[in-house]
Amino acid sequence: MAAAVTRFFLRGAGSKVPNTGVSTRGHSSFGATLLKLSPSCNVRTKTQRRHAAHFTFQPDPVPTQYGPTQKMNLFQSITSALDNTLANDPTAVIFGEDVAFGGVFRCTVGLRDKYGKDRVFNTPLCEQGIVGFGIGVAVAGATAVAEIQFADYIFPAFDQIVNEAAKYRYRSGNLFDCGGLTIRAPWGCVGHGSLYHSQSPEAFFAHCPGVKIVIPRSPVQAKGLLLSCIADKNPCIFFEPKILYRAAVEQVPVEPYTIPLSQAEILQEGSDVTLVAWGTQVHVMREVANMAQEKLGVSCEVIDLQTILPWDTETVCKSVVKTGRLLISHEAPVTGGFAAEISSTVQEECFLNLEAPISRVCGYDTPFPHIFEPFYIPDKWKCFDAIKRMINY
Amino acid sequence: MDRQGNIINPSEDPKLSKETVLNFYQKMTLLNTMDRILYESQRQGRISFYMTNYGEEGTHIGSAAALDPSDLVFGQYREAGVLMYRGFPLDLFMAQCYASTDDLGKGRQMPVHYGSKDLNFVTISSPLATQLPQAAGAAYAIKRENMNRVVICYFGEGAASEGDAHAGFNFSATLECPLIFFCRNNGYAISTPTNEQYRGDGIAARGPGYGMLSIRVDGNDVFAVYNATKEARRRAVAENQPFLIEAMTYRIGHHSTSDDSSAYRSVDEVNYWDKQDHPISRLRHYMLAHSWWSEDDERSWRKQSRKMVMEAFEKAEKRLKPSPELLFTDVYQELSPSLNKQRESMWRHLQQYKEHYQLDLYDK
Ligand SMILES: Cc1ncc(C[n+]2csc(CCOP(=O)(O)OP(=O)(O)O)c2C)c(N)n1
Ligand SMILES: [Mg+2]
């Protein structure tokens, strides 16, 4: 295969391209255009194969209660929510790095042209600036939707979020608040993002009373939950599973609608094991529930937590009282991850109902690695195996 | 040097030897060739990501040549030419982009996150501008060693908006660090043009505000970059102070393979820089005028350089990926007991479910 590749490269190289002569003016193409490989040489050797997605997106039934729907993927459902917001709230502004041309994930496409560049705009490249600016917009009574380009790059804004946004209302005796602020950020693994385009940093912020944290699993959920965050009178962080931006497609209502925060959703009822996840991992869990049913005859209850902070302890604990077993799974490292918090609360609330130790299937305690991602992530086989062990406990 | 490769002011001709200039040219063009092949290979899904250096070759080679090989480099990500100038072999560039077992970074980072201890090039990190205050600290430590070394820190005009950039500038000035801040002002930060990044007079104008010497230079003139960096280095060492260089250039390629720049800038704009003011063609004009280079030389060098890159490319493509064992090392210097348990449980799992993992692609 490699030999064929070389041939194609060299054949390309032989074909003449304008401006390659030494005496011509343009530089344009040293080593050149020439390298266009014919599609036929795109046959891959084993070492080149990219891994298939680790999950299968499962669309929900088409919602009927919110009027007409349209086919949208997850980034389009975000755009739709932002569009509704700009249309209905004249104070609303949307900003961040590269937001004006539509954003690197295309979530704000068309909005600047539709609503003007004073409402949808680029900021200088500075996350602490973006969040601080957003807090200020909200303190002045307007609605701020701030985009951080990747959740991995939210940390320069950590101080603004943790020490400022989260504490504004409390420290001023409720004289001032920044409840009009929503921070959006693409989140989670994508298959090849490595250390800084893969992280799930929700647990850092879950240690921070005063902010809400929300993570949707699908386009329909994303729009309703984002609109709830924007409407909510507390600063919210909305993490968007970026692997779903294009991969997840559903019929999404065109009109605005909200989905309540701090309410988990039971996606599938079951009697033997409760599976809790959020974002992309919900789809892994759904598949695992099917595997457990088919291969082990085990009935799983699948819960999408949706809001990480403040989270719905009641729904989760009720389920565990029924099933007696709990598996929690997230991509972030296991130590200090949000699964630890859930596990600890459930242990306190449901100790006598538990048939097996609560199981956490999460990322390892390492940075998110590039080439080792298939081994790092809490994939369906690891989750399946954990269920097996709980049942056999 | 003007666009036709003529030296405008003879007193500023660095008067480099033919051999040196040929080396500049070969490194700039080799970088360009490597970029084209790796860009194309990403398009075909052979590597996961790539960032080209098109149009900025002059800033890399001109600055790298003015340094001592022992000077410590902190880069952003678009400075592969600096590493190439220092002698980083094509095989290792390829190994990093392919995340093969030969990658010095052990396959952990995305493509273009090179690093080399031997060549004093600190491994690239994606979060922007974090390297600026780090470079100040490194320069401070190097100053105390008294070895006549400096630190050079590269960054984009976009990254210069980060809070860390302010910290880096101010720390290095107040703590008198022998440090060259090298800003590649290439007109864009992804889609954001400079007039949405700052309203002052560029990055160089910030120097005086920090009590820092600064200069703006034509980044597409490799000799001008060389001169500026040489002088910055001289003063940084002699006077233990930071020096800010703003090299004006243009990002001819897309930001990365994830970007399509036609969404925010015109083809005409890109063509203008590509055709009218390219650092490689400027230098070629200079060499032609001196009869140091001919059409035959160009042809055979092209062929040779392409062959070199292709050979390295093929070699890397065939190699295995690093052992999954390396997922757990280097988190800490030592493997903690709890991480060791996780490591063991991963291997147990992979053993039990091996048909679901492509272990044959990885080293044992
Ligand atoms: C802290 C942080 N925020 C955002 C990003 C995403 N990002 C990567 S490159 C880039 C633009 C950088 O532009 P510039 O500094 O001008 O460098 P250039 O790409 O032009 O060489 C952005 C926003 C990042 N890597 N780190
Ligand atoms: Mg730039």
Automatic annotation (TrEMBL), chain A:
Pfam families per record: Transket_pyr, Transketolase_C
Q: Where is the Transketolase-like pyrimidine-binding domain?
A: 72-247
Q: Which SMART domains does the annotation name?
A: Transket_pyr (SM00861)
Q: Write the record's keywords in alphabetical order, separated by commas.
A: Mitochondrion, Oxidoreductase, Transit peptide
The record ties this protein, via InterPro entries, to: THDP-binding, Transketo_C/PFOR_II, Transketolase-like_Pyr-bd, Transketolase_C
Entries under Gene3D superfamilies matching the protein: 3.40.50.920, 3.40.50.970
User: CDD domains under this entry?
Assistant: TPP_PYR_E1-PDHc-beta_like
> GO terms for biological process?
branched-chain amino acid catabolic process; response to nutrient
E.C. no:
1.2.4.4
Supply one GO CC term from the record.
mitochondrial matrix
For the protein in the UniProt heading, the enzyme class is: oxidoreductase
Please name the GO terms that the record assigns under molecular function: branched-chain 2-oxo acid dehydrogenase activity
Q: What does this protein do?
A: Together with BCKDHA forms the heterotetrameric E1 subunit of the mitochondrial branched-chain alpha-ketoacid dehydrogenase (BCKD) complex. The BCKD complex catalyzes the multi-step oxidative decarboxylation of alpha-ketoacids derived from the branched-chain amino-acids valine, leucine and isoleucine producing CO2 and acyl-CoA which is subsequently utilized to produce energy. The E1 subunit catalyzes the first step with the decarboxylation of the alpha-ketoacid forming an enzyme-product intermediate.
Q: Which reaction does it catalyse?
A: N(6)-[(R)-lipoyl]-L-lysyl-[protein] + 3-methyl-2-oxobutanoate + H(+) = N(6)-[(R)-S(8)-2-methylpropanoyldihydrolipoyl]-L-lysyl-[protein] + CO2
Q: What is this protein called?
A: 2-oxoisovalerate dehydrogenase subunit beta, mitochondrial
- Superkingdom field: Eukaryota
Keyword Disulfide bond set for record: no
What cofactor does its activity depend on?
thiamine diphosphate
- Whom does it interact with, and what assembly results? Heterotetramer of 2 alpha/BCKDHA and 2 beta chains/BCKDHB that forms the branched-chain alpha-keto acid decarboxylase (E1) component of the BCKD complex. The branched-chain alpha-ketoacid dehydrogenase is a large complex composed of three major building blocks E1, E2 and E3. It is organized around E2, a 24-meric cubic core composed of DBT, to which are associated 6 to 12 copies of E1, and approximately 6 copies of the dehydrogenase E3, a DLD dimer.
Annotated localization: Mitochondrion matrix
From TrEMBL, chain B:
User: Keywords of this protein's UniProt record, alphabetized?
Assistant: Metal-binding, Mitochondrion, Oxidoreductase, Potassium, Thiamine pyrophosphate, Transit peptide
List the transmembrane segments. Answer: none
Tell me the enzyme class.
oxidoreductase
- In the record, what terms sit under GO molecular function? branched-chain 2-oxo acid dehydrogenase activity; metal ion binding
Question: Which cofactors does this gene product need?
Answer: thiamine diphosphate
**Record GO cellular component, one term:** mitochondrial matrix
Gene Ontology biological process terms, A to Z: branched-chain amino acid catabolic process
Location of this chain's protein in the cell: Mitochondrion matrix
Record domain Dehydrogenase E1 component: where: 26-324
Predominant cellular place of this UniProt entry's protein: mitochondrion
Catalytic activity reads: N(6)-[(R)-lipoyl]-L-lysyl-[protein] + 3-methyl-2-oxobutanoate + H(+) = N(6)-[(R)-S(8)-2-methylpropanoyldihydrolipoyl]-L-lysyl-[protein] + CO2
What InterPro entries does the database record attribute to this sequence? Alpha-ketoacid_DH_E1_comp, DH_E1, THDP-binding
- What the protein does? The branched-chain alpha-keto dehydrogenase complex catalyzes the overall conversion of alpha-keto acids to acyl-CoA and CO(2). It contains multiple copies of three enzymatic components: branched-chain alpha-keto acid decarboxylase (E1), lipoamide acyltransferase (E2) and lipoamide dehydrogenase (E3).
**Family in the record:** Belongs to the BCKDHA family.
Q: How does it assemble?
A: Heterotetramer of 2 alpha/BCKDHA and 2 beta chains/BCKDHB that forms the branched-chain alpha-keto acid decarboxylase (E1) component of the BCKD complex. The branched-chain alpha-ketoacid dehydrogenase is a large complex composed of three major building blocks E1, E2 and E3. It is organized around E2, a 24-meric cubic core composed of DBT, to which are associated 6 to 12 copies of E1, and approximately 6 copies of the dehydrogenase E3, a DLD dimer. Interacts with PPM1K.
Q: What is this protein called?
A: 2-oxoisovalerate dehydrogenase subunit alpha
